[in-house]
Design brief:
By secondary structure, the protein is mainly beta. About 10% of the residues lie in helices and about 45% in strands. It is built from three helices and 20 strands. A four-stranded antiparallel sheet has the order 1-2-3-4, with no helix packed on it. The longest helix has 19 residues. It is globular.
């Protein structure tokens, strides 16, 4: 009887403790509305945490900044929707939209926008940081920013998927809708892997990984690059396989 009473007392105490702990089993989420951050309801396509711990959200003609206490709006006139963010190795935050490339400059405690490029990039524009160099993908080719100058390297084919570009083994790789992988070697692209004979769909992402020479994500699954071939990764292939 005493043991039974002791057990019931333990259960009651545990219930009181868990009731007092609102986070037990239920993470606390904070929801912010357009009223909170002072903007119209709209879409956000890019999010990042800057080197100072602030959250940046790409908006239409603006970047929203949240420091865990206050919201700040940085106007980016005539940029359209911000599509990509990245911080270079000096901690400078860069952004790109479908028509603009620029970076944020901190002056007198507030962010300001410095634009460095104006031209058609496409909705799949993204930023790639490779050491001291910055690359920006566009529908027409790969743009490179170096010492204040922008240059462009055309894609090797018209079917490149710009959003698949990534740094892999210290080189810029890009895939196309038919499956092959290309590598930027100096000032030109060369094909380094051929698509398997089966139609596995376009290259959607490239991941630098110690498994094989890298991982390639396609609609039908994940592939390993082994030498010049793309080989299905059996553990993930069946799990990710979808209908075309």
């Amino acid at each position: 009887m005493i043991k039974c009473f002791g057990f019931l007392l333990f259960i009651c105490n545990a219930g009181i403790v868990l009731a007092a702990d609102r986070e037990f089993g239920h993470p606390i989420f904070r929801t912010f509305t357009a009223h909170d951050y002072g903007a119209e309801v709209g879409q956000i396509f890019a999010i990042m945490e800057d080197p100072q711990g602030r959250m940046l959200f790409g908006y239409e003609d603006a970047i929203l900044v949240f420091d865990n206490n206050h919201w700040e709006t940085i106007p980016t006139p005539e940029t359209g929707f911000i599509r990509s963010f990245a911080a270079d190795n000096h901690g400078v935050v860069w952004f790109s939209s479908s028509t603009e490339i620029g970076y944020l400059s901190r002056i007198d405690g507030r962010y300001g926008v410095v634009k460095v490029y104006d031209g058609p990039l496409g909705i799949n524009s993204r930023i790639i940081v490779d050491g001291d160099r910055l690359y920006f993908t566009s529908d027409a080719g790969l743009l490179s920013w170096n010492n204040g100058h922008m240059s462009q390297q055309p894609w090797p084919t018209d079917s490149i998927t710009p959003f698949s570009s990534a740094v892999c083994h210290g080189k810029i790789w890009a895939g196309d809708r038919n499956g092959p992988i290309y590598e930027l070697d100096g000032r030109s692209f060369k094909k380094i892997a051929e698509s398997p004979p089966t139609n596995a769909g376009e290259v959607r992402a490239i991941v630098d990984c110690p498994i094989g020479d890298g991982l390639i994500v396609r609609p039908s699954g994940i592939f390993r690059k082994i030498d010049a071939a793309l080989v299905p990764w059996p553990l993930a292939y069946n799990f990710l396989q979808t209908e075309e």
